[in-house]
Structures are given as structure tokens and as C-alpha cells.
Amino acid sequence: MIRSVVRGIGSALPKRVVTNREMETMVDTSDEWIVQRTGIRQRYIAGEGETTASLGAEAAKKALEAAGITADDIDMIVCATSTPDNTFPSTAVNIQARLGMTHGFAFDVQAVCTGFVYAITTADAYIRGGLAKRVLVIGAETFSRILDWEDRTTCVLFGDGAGAIVLEASEEQGVNAVRGVLTAHLRSDGSHKDKLYVDGGPSTTGTVGHLRMEGREVFKYAVGMITDVIEQSFAASGLTAEDVDWLVPHQANRRIIDGAAKKLAIPLEKVVITVDQHGNTSAASIPLALSVAVADGRIKKGDLVLLEAMGGGFTWGAVLLRW
Ligand code: UT7
């Protein structure tokens, strides 16, 4: 059976760190409020010349290097982002150009904070369907560029960054002992589209717009939606919460992460948490967290890793993979 196995990972962050203390100088907020309600202590904010594509390309180069291959060996790029450099062409082709790659194909997926989960699932389907052999899967965002910096209810929550993995087709036997993506479950429900959205766009206002969120409403649904798709992943794979070595959740809010882990009975020692350092980087948050936990030696070859996310749309999803 063909499986999509992770061969390398990389990440990139903007140079500038903005602490909660610095946020206090911009809007009526406090370090205490932000830490208590979200767990966030700092975030990275893109400066001049740093864009979604530049960060995505930097992460992709590191992932290629970690995999011991070059862009010549890649046949597909899928980039999850809601903050593209341009409305079109896609950020994926922008990154393709930055990698000096003129063969293969590249496209974006847009599922807001669930983007990386959608992108891995898409890449896995292309690999198992025989349409691609080696895929760069990227999550890259510059949410700082769509924030209303006068709205304290949103501007303290988000940050910029990018992460990337190389997925490669591999002939694997069996179900549970094999490496690679084991099962993926995606969901969306557009009836919630006005709870977390951007109030502009090419076809409506002709402007980029700003992020708007009914935070409490999003919070209300988050844990239930996340645990639903994770339970579906367990049912489909025959694996249980006890089998999971690492839960790598989307990093939106420490309280949502803790709530989901508790409901699933996954101990916090097995949860990778980076929201304190990165804030919510939307589609970049999972590959950024993965890359921290791989670099510090927590996630090792053969570990069962559970990815999950929920965000604007609403969209939500989970991926179970053996590293
Ligand atoms: O990644 C995509 C998914 N997005 C999310 O998962 C976000 C989900 N939502 C959340 O994480 C939380 O709802 C927030 C962190 C956004 C807000 O936390 P909350 O506990 O739901 O607070 P709240 O919205 O109920 O606001 C409580 C109070 C309000 O004051 P009043 O009305 O009680 O007087 C807000 O005005 O906190 C006030 N507040 C702030 N105070 C200081 C809101 N933002 C701030 C702020 N600093 N930055």
C-alpha cells in the first residue's frame, strides 16, 4: 500500500518579536489578560520584505535540506494560506519560483486555521492516487497584515510564520505499524461563516479587509468539533488516545488545547504547545509546532502523531500519522 511518509521538516519566523508588554503600548490590554485568556506571551510580526511567500520559501528550503533532496526532486507544492502575497497567482507558485523550480505543479488551499490539515490530506490523496511522488506541504501566513491593530479583541491573538514538510510516496505494508499518514478527517460547515471572517475581498469590496471574530462563539464550538474528528480518526484506524505519542494541535488558545486534551484523556506531557511563543499563526501553527518538537528531540521516527485544527468557515479536521 502506498503511504505518504514525512521525510523532512523546516520552519521560518519573522525577525521581530512582539511581546505582550509591547502590545500594551498599542491597545488597551495587559500581559495578564492575554496570558490568562489565551496562554500567548509573544508573537512574531513580519517586517518589510518579509511576506507569506518569503517565509514559506525559507521553511520549504529547510525542509528540503532536512530531507536531503532538492527542489528538482519535488513534483508538487501545496501551500495552505489565507494571507497570500497576491490575490493571484497562488503563493505556492510564488514559492515554486523562489525555489527555482520550473517543473511540476503548485497550488494553494484555503481553510484558514485548518489549512495545514487540509493541505496534508490533499497531498496524501495525490500521493496515494499516483499523481505525485514527493510533495512540499507548506503552511505560511502573515496575519499581521489583515489585523485591525485598533481592535484589542483580535490583534493580540495572531502572529506570522511558516512551516513545511516533505511528504514522499512509500510502499508500506499493514495498517498500524507502518509510517506515514494513516487516516485523515476533514469537515466544514459554512453556516458559521460570519463568526470568523475577513470583511473584504476582491469580489465584494475590492479591498483586502480586516479579520473579524466573535471569539466567544468560536470558543464555544472549538473543543467539540476538534474532539469529534479525532474520535472519527480513532474509529477509522483502530487506534486509541493511549496509542498517541504526541498531540500537535493548532495553536489558537491554550484553554482550547487543554480542553481538547482533557476530553480525549491525552496527558499534557504528550501535547506540543507553542502558542505561548508564536501566538495563533493560523495555517502555519501546526508545522511550526511540529518543527519545534522535532528539533528538540521529542518527536522521533516511528512516533504516532495526531494533528488537529479548527478555524474560520468553520473548518476543522484531524490527521493521524506515524512520523
Ligand atoms: O484559530 C481560529 C480559531 N480562533 C479561536 O480559536 C479563538 C477562539 N476564541 C478565544 O480564544 C477566546 O474567545 C478569546 C481569547 C478571543 C477571548 O477570550 P474570552 O474569555 O472568550 O473573552 P471574552 O471575549 O468573553 O471577553 C471578556 C472580556 C470582555 O470585556 P467585558 O465585555 O467582559 O467587559 C472584553 O472586552 O475581556 C475583554 N477583552 C480584553 N481585555 C483586555 C477582550 N480582548 C481584550 C484584550 N485585553 N486584548
UniProtKB/TrEMBL annotation:
Name the gene behind this protein.
Answer: fabH
Which CDD domains does the annotation name?
KAS_III
Query: Which family, according to the similarity comment?
Result: Belongs to the thiolase-like superfamily. FabH family.
Q: Name one Pfam family in it.
A: ACP_syn_III
Q: Where is this region: ACP-binding?
A: 251-255
Q: Tell me, which GO biological process terms does this entry list?
A: fatty acid biosynthetic process
Q: What is this protein called?
A: Beta-ketoacyl-[acyl-carrier-protein] synthase III
Q: Which residues form the Beta-ketoacyl-[acyl-carrier-protein] synthase III C-terminal domain?
A: 235-323
Q: Which residues form the active site?
A: C113, H250, N280
Q: What does this protein do?
A: Catalyzes the condensation reaction of fatty acid synthesis by the addition to an acyl acceptor of two carbons from malonyl-ACP. Catalyzes the first condensation reaction which initiates fatty acid synthesis and may therefore play a role in governing the total rate of fatty acid production. Possesses both acetoacetyl-ACP synthase and acetyl transacylase activities. Its substrate specificity determines the biosynthesis of branched-chain and/or straight-chain of fatty acids.
Q: Which InterPro entries match?
A: ACP_syn_III_C, ACP_syn_III_N, FabH, Thiolase-like
